[in-house]
């Protein structure tokens, strides 16, 4: 749920800053792009450090080298977070991040079905996780296509 809170909370904060006169956040587009970037930087941070073993366990056994997959997806999240805030790259970043979300979803399904935990907290059950994934996909695609 932390990525959802980051997305919604930072989007609201940035819009408030825009309404308060901070010109950079004077549009929904910029506010959403930066909120999406922060969400992906937050999720990428889990790919290293104490949460890493939990993420590796989430990778379904049919995939080889789960440690490598976790590392690569973390770097892709960082690259996408940077690119989504660059107007000329935002559409490409949105497509890449959307594909990444879809590609990583089997790990979320596996974790939910096997009742895994991240940092001692049980993962979100499958139905709410699917709804969250749709929210994340919508936010990413809107961030890439809003002008």
Helical stretch tally: 6
What is the end-to-end distance? Answer: 28 Å
Please outline the major beta sheet.
Answer: 2 strands, antiparallel
Report the strand count: 2
Overall outline: globular
* Quaternary: single chain
Average pLDDT works out at: 96
Radius of gyration: 16 Å
Question: How many structural domains?
Answer: 1
Strand order in the sheet with the most strands: 1-2
Q: N-to-C SSE series?
A: HHHHHEEH
Low-confidence region ranges: none
What helical percentage do the residues reach?
over 70%
Structural class determined from secondary elements: mainly alpha
What portion of the residues fall into strands of 2 or more residues? under 5%
Description:
This protein has 147 residues and is an all-alpha fold. The protein has one domain (2-145). It has six helices and two strands. It has helices at residues 2-19, 28-45, 52-58, 66-84, 90-113, 126-145; strands spanning 117-118, 121-122. A two-stranded antiparallel ribbon has the order 1-2. Strand 1 (117-118) and strand 2 form a beta hairpin. Helix 3 packs across helix 4. The longest helix has 24 residues, at 90-113. The protein is globular and about 50 Å long.
Write the layout of secondary structure elements.
Blueprint: H1 2-19, H2 28-45, H3 52-58, H4 66-84, H5 90-113, E1 117-118, E2 121-122, H6 126-145
Briefly summarize what is shown.
The chain is mainly α and 147 residues long. Helices cover 72% and strands 3% of the residues.
């Amino acid at each position: 749920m932390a990525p959802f809170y980051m997305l919604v909370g930072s989007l609201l904060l940035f819009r408030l800053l825009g309404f308060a006169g901070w010109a950079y956040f004077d549009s929904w587009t910029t506010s959403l792009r930066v909120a999406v970037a922060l969400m992906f930087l937050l999720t990428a941070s889990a790919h290293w450090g104490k949460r890493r073993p939990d993420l590796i366990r989430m990778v379904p056994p049919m995939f080889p080298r789960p440690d490598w997959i976790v590392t690569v997806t973390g770097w892709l999240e960082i690259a996408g977070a940077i690119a989504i805030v660059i107007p000329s790259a935002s559409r490409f970043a949105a497509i890449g991040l959307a594909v990444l979300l879809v590609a990583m979803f089997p790990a979320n399904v596996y974790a939910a079905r096997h009742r895994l935990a991240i940092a001692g907290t049980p993962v979100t059950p499958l139905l709410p996780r699917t709804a969250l994934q749709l929210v994340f996909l919508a936010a990413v695609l809107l961030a890439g296509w809003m002008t």
